[in-house]
Each structure stands twice: as C-alpha cells, then as structure tokens.
Amino acid sequence: MEFKIAVCDDCEKELEQEIKTIKNVLDRTGFKGKITSFSEPEKLIKCGEEYNVVFLDIDMGYPGGLQTAEILKSRNKNCYVFFVTNYETFLDEAFNKHAFRYWIKPMDENKLTYAFEFIKHEFEKSKIRLNLKTASGALEICPDKIIYFYVMNRILRIVTDNGELAVKNTYREVKDTLRGSMDFFEISRGCCVNFKYVRGNTKKELYCSGSGKQYRLDISRRNYSNFNRSFTKWLGGAV
User: Fold this and answer.
1) pTM to 2 decimal places
2) CATH classification at residue 22
3) Quick count: other Cβ atoms within 10 Å of Cβ 228?
4) Residues 143 and 183 in one domain
5) Is residue 234 within 8 Å of 199, Cβ to Cβ?
6) Which domain holds residue 194?
7) What does the pLDDT look like over 92-129, one tens digit per residue?
8) Residues 10-25: pLDDT tens digits?
C-alpha cells in the first residue's frame, strides 16, 4: 500500500521538521508515501483530496486542528489523524475527535515507524472476515466490529458495535483466528478485548465503549502488567 499523507502546521519551521521526520521513516522502512504540506487548515479542507494519513497541529488559525480533524473524518472515516502539538491540555478532546495518535512535539521516529506498521496492518486486516455460526445460520463479520468476546455458561458471546451475539464457535477457535491481530488481548480467562474500544482502566477493571454503550470488564491480576505494556505499544506511546 501507499500512504497518502497530509501534514498541516502553521509554523513553517515545525512543518519542515515534521516532513523531514516522515521522509526519514519512509526511506528507512521502505514504506511508500506521497506527502503534501499545508500551512493553513482551510487549504487542507478545501483541496478536495482524500488522505489516508493526516498530521495536524492543534493550535492553528480558523478552523483549528480539532475542527479540521472532525471535517476530514466526516469525509473519510478511514483517515488516520495524528495530532502533533505542544499542548497536553487537548488530549481528551482530541480522542473525542477520533485521533489515532496524540504526540507532543517533536515527532519521534520510532513511534512513527510503529504507527505506520500498525496502519499497514489495519489495511491488511480490513480484508479479514470472521465466520461465525449462530442459531439462525452462518454470519460473517469484520473483527474490527468486535468490542470484546467472552464465555458464559460454556457459550461464546461476542459483543459488537451492533449488539451481542451467542455463537456456536468455540472461544479457542475465535481466539486462534484473531491470533495475528495486534488489536485483541486476553484480559482474563475466557475474555478477550479489542484495544480499539478501550477508554481506560484500573488495576482491576477495564472500561470500554462502542456505539454509545459503556462496558466494564474485569482484568485478572496476572494479566494486568502485560495488558498495560501491550496497550501502550498499541497506542504507539501516544499518552
């Protein structure tokens, strides 16, 4: 795949540095990418191009980075938005705007390398389908739609962004199918969660949300440390 990248920052010096960092990572990793730079968010919005990767400063002229991200995501929900800023205060609002990463300047090449690897994986993963057996027949779903899945009374239940399903597949069968995914983690025996829907956690509980619903799940003590390490890696050191 080829990354179609837009970089928007109203500080010329920082814009040049971000482009240099992105080019260095593309050259070092062999990933293909075309970079277009913008010094004004309005020009990015009006250019009419659809980018699959966008780097935005937050504190820019009207419209700011947060509003720009919202507009771009409404046009292309598969766009990966990186906020690269000098301010930590916008973190919560940025993730409400579906930020993929939130980084404090300067941009880090190692984090960017992992992020590009992750995006490549996401594009490949979008082609995967999970074949489920339900009481009403066969069903094919995208793993990205799964919030978490768990076993209750020896029945596998899969919670998706469109509701909950009881399926005839075994827990191990589904877990093995998703083994190559970077998104899923077993937080306790018989329960796997999709990092994409995680919103926070304590040492004992995990909080997820999807399609306007909130979920609270138990994390086993022995899996807590591994969960934190895996989730931080999945985030690419974003927070």
Assistant:
1) 0.61
2) 3.40.50.2300
3) 13
4) yes
5) no
6) 130-235
7) 565 565 678 888 899 999 999 988 988 887 777 767 78
8) 999 999 999 999 999 9
